[in-house]
Write a structure and sequence with these properties.
Helices cover about 90% and strands about 0% of the residues. It is elongated, with a radius of gyration of 14 Å. The longest helix is centred in the last third of the chain and has 29 residues, at about 30-55. By secondary structure, the chain is mainly α.
């Protein structure tokens, strides 16, 4: 679970960086990267939910 949390944190940091570049500087490529990161985050957070439920049932 710790590894998953580290991956989520790293992906969120990348998302935040690219999203701010898009909003502050109008960088279209950064916007594309931010959207891709948001999809990856969605997958990871769904996995976190599964793992978290499994941990709570122990």
């Amino acid at each position: 679970m710790e590894e998953l949390l580290n991956k989520v944190k790293a992906e969120f940091d990348a998302f935040a960086k690219d999203a701010s570049l898009q909003s502050e500087k109008g960088n279209k490529a950064a916007g594309t990267r931010a959207r891709k990161s948001s999809l990856e985050l969605e997958k990871m957070l769904k996995e976190f939910r599964k793992v978290s439920l499994g941990e709570s049932k122990k």
